[in-house]
Amino acid sequence: MSEQTVWTDVDLTAERLKALRHQVWQANMDLQRHNLVTFTWGNVSGIDRKSGLVVIKPSGVEYSDLSAANMVIVDLQGRIVEGDMNPSSDTATHLELYRQYPDIGGIVHTHSPQATAWAQAGRAIPALGTTHADYFYGQIDCTRALSDKEIAEDYELNTGKVIVETIGDGDAMAAPGILVKEHAPFTWGKDPHQAVHNAVVVEVVAGMALQTLQINSGVSSINPSLLDKHYLRKHGANAYYGQTKK
Amino acid sequence: MSEQTVWTDVDLTAERLKALRHQVWQANMDLQRHNLVTFTWGNVSGIDRKSGLVVIKPSGVEYSDLSAANMVIVDLQGRIVEGDMNPSSDTATHLELYRQYPDIGGIVHTHSPQATAWAQAGRAIPALGTTHADYFYGQIDCTRALSDKEIAEDYELNTGKVIVETIGDGDAMAAPGILVKEHAPFTWGKDPHQAVHNAVVVEVVAGMALQTLQINSGVSSINPSLLDKHYLRKHGANAYYGQTKK
Amino acid sequence: MSEQTVWTDVDLTAERLKALRHQVWQANMDLQRHNLVTFTWGNVSGIDRKSGLVVIKPSGVEYSDLSAANMVIVDLQGRIVEGDMNPSSDTATHLELYRQYPDIGGIVHTHSPQATAWAQAGRAIPALGTTHADYFYGQIDCTRALSDKEIAEDYELNTGKVIVETIGDGDAMAAPGILVKEHAPFTWGKDPHQAVHNAVVVEVVAGMALQTLQINSGVSSINPSLLDKHYLRKHGANAYYGQTKK
Amino acid sequence: MSEQTVWTDVDLTAERLKALRHQVWQANMDLQRHNLVTFTWGNVSGIDRKSGLVVIKPSGVEYSDLSAANMVIVDLQGRIVEGDMNPSSDTATHLELYRQYPDIGGIVHTHSPQATAWAQAGRAIPALGTTHADYFYGQIDCTRALSDKEIAEDYELNTGKVIVETIGDGDAMAAPGILVKEHAPFTWGKDPHQAVHNAVVVEVVAGMALQTLQINSGVSSINPSLLDKHYLRKHGANAYYGQTKK
């Protein structure tokens, strides 16, 4: 084209949302590829921070029927902005996390079996080795149970609130996942792809942790120096794992 | 065709049975796709309530040899109406459930390993989290053992009867599956597809429940309010999960 | 061909051995398909009872390099009759079983993990449910440990002998498999295909049995009436499972 | 070519390194094929003893992006000789083992889940059966924990040193793998392919050993005579397993 393209804000937002739809759809499909979901028991969302709009999986749709086109777009108050289908029934949980933690760019919820077992047991997953320490700077917390009132009214919103309450003064990005008691894990990251990555990590370390306790029920948590070493060689200013710092 | 097609009752029944043959064959193949069966250790049936005829897998035939055409059709008294092969050896169990519960449209029996372990242990699978509560409105019961007499005479019919006895005044559709002690699970649903779906659920929650108890042997069942919330957001008049209620 | 073919005994034996080579090769490949082997840790053999010749997998050859042509043929004394490679290092164990039990037509040895765990634990797998009872008429025995002398001299032959000793007066075909202590399972059947089938059964019931004990450590063995019922509905004069009796 | 090719030492080294690049790349891909790695949590290296150069996987690169061409070549002091990417963050551990044990030709590090559980538990994997004895002449040791100082300074080098300390006067090739406490397994072999093979063995026997203890918590280690028999029928002067000795 010889004419100069003038990009308006509206155009730019539309472009970003189009890309995000594709990322969120891809991340949902990746849940299945990583064997984290049975049937439709999982959902991924991503946020466009500039517009404050969230792209999320529609509720109860089979993975084979998902496409970038049928992802639902909602605003941070949960109003549907684009899409013909209901958004995930867990949308209110996702939105609470996006509202509270500006660094979160993507969120995943699954019922992956080994992490779900820890959530059902109401136990945090202790940091027992470097696999865990490479991603989580300490244990993977488990929330308290919701009260009857919290369940009866705005259940999904309250699920988000109890996650926020559990994180408390902690750094949400340094422990990018949590177990909701009697329920299942939620994970997050800077984008939907990283949130899925962390969902895999939670499932793997959940399984390893149970086996570790079965081998040695008296095992103690990882040496804090080793936790520091592994977390910080992958994260933060002096990270040296991978190719980015070369 | 320019001529008007006149559908007789006989034609309509034949059409429905043709469709049901295909559904039951597909559901049997789905057992394999979901890794619920070893060899031929599973069977699915479906009923056409208008004619009272049941389509069921033939006995001991390998999955690779199954087709819609070789499904067997029996009436509710177990008489073969169509088919050259023996129906599943568990046919009498299926028929007893169809006779007792008019809402059941499909039945599945498998020896899926984790659910079978609970059946062998003679223990109900407790409702420990929302994965369970999304499908079963309470624990997944385990029957009593059959008596020597019940085993010796009409074993398969008595297997159906002990399932009915265990359900008692319960709502068969609100807990669409059961463990037969020293044997394995049976599940059901409004159609064969849903019965298979519930067979997957039983296998998954069986595995999660054992792991949960291994992490925390003192865990208690899910908060009844949370059980209500999850079961009722997917089932009943006010369900809001998925796309149907929009 | 217009001329009449005259089959000599030699021709007939060659034809039968050719077919058996193919069966034994196929059965070896099936071990891999059923996820029973890591690397080359498994072997299948079959016997031609008329000639007394045994076809067996060569030792330590990768599954991708196996073919019907490179199966080794040995006589019941272990002398190589055909083949350029060493037969399985466990050949002497197979031969002892063929010599002692004329009904055995095929033998399988694997290190399938769940059955091997029971063998390493030195425990028989108890009959805890109908999955087990459909194939094994009682527990799956575990041999005693071999003595130092038995290990030092003719180890593989003595492995066969301790299996025979453990079976004692029992019916080898009614419990078509055994665990060799500190080692792994051997199974057998009327032909190589059935021996592989039984190897799968042993692996599956081994896993189920451990899980059953983890759920209920005080569980007792299956009611003998139910064991009878399930074993006999698949085996013996009055069997009614499958299509053969119709 | 009609002219005589004159191979200089430089040419020969280049040829060997080219072949080694391919072997190391292939061995890295095999980790994935054997289900030993999640994401990029594993690495393989190989050494060319004549030149003292080591080929190793680049750090944090996805398996789908690996190629023989992007393997990194370092010398035994860790200086990059060829390659545009950072070598594995665990390179210093590999190099320490190559410096100490001249028979080692390939090294593997993974976080395979069952072996990692034993490492996290800080327990050696006992030799409980012949599967283990076929490859490891005794238990698979677990190192002591590193001190805070060892973690803070030259962590990866000290990981190598604590492995060497644990092996002590032992024969590194007779127990070709070890667990690093709170971390994960390292294995080795005469070449990268064999190191991967041993990584699979460690994962399989780790899983079997836990199950064995769950079945019989009082089990004792394998009879030393049987350990000898199985190890020595595959290794050493009188080995008779496989085809090489015929």
Q: Biggest sheet of chain A, in brief?
A: 7 strands, antiparallel
In the sheet with the most strands of chain A, the strands line up as 4-3-2-1-5-7-6
Beta-strand segment tally of chain A: 7
CATH superfamily membership of chain A, which one? Class II aldolase/adducin N-terminal domain
EC number (chains A, B, C, D): 5.1.3.4
Protein name (chains A, B, C, D): L-ribulose-5-phosphate 4-epimerase
Pfam family, one (chains A, B, C, D): Aldolase_II
Cofactor (chains A, B, C, D): Zn(2+)
Could you walk me through the main structural features you see in this protein, from its secondary elements to its overall organization?
- The structure is a homotetramer of 246-residue chains.
- The first copy, chain A, is an alpha+beta fold.
- Chain A has one domain (3-235): 3-Layer(aba) Sandwich (L-fuculose-1-phosphate Aldolase), CATH 3.40.225.10.
- Helix content of chain A is 41%, strand content 13%.
- Chain A has 8 helices and 7 strands, in the order H-E-E-E-E-H-E-H-H-H-H-E-E-H-H.
- Chain A has helices at residues 9-33, 91-100, 113-121, 130-133, 148-152, 155-167, 192-215, 224-234; strands at 42-48, 53-56, 72-75, 80-82, 106-110, 177-179, 185-189.
- In chain A, strands 4-3-2-1-5-7-6 form a 7-stranded antiparallel sheet, with helices on both faces.
- In chain A, helix 3 (113-121) packs across helix 7.
- Chain A is globular, with a radius of gyration of 19 Å.
- The mean pLDDT of chain A is 95.
- Chains in contact: A-B, A-D, B-C, C-D.
- Chains A and B meet through helix 3, helix 5 and helix 7 of A and helix 7 and helix 8 of B.
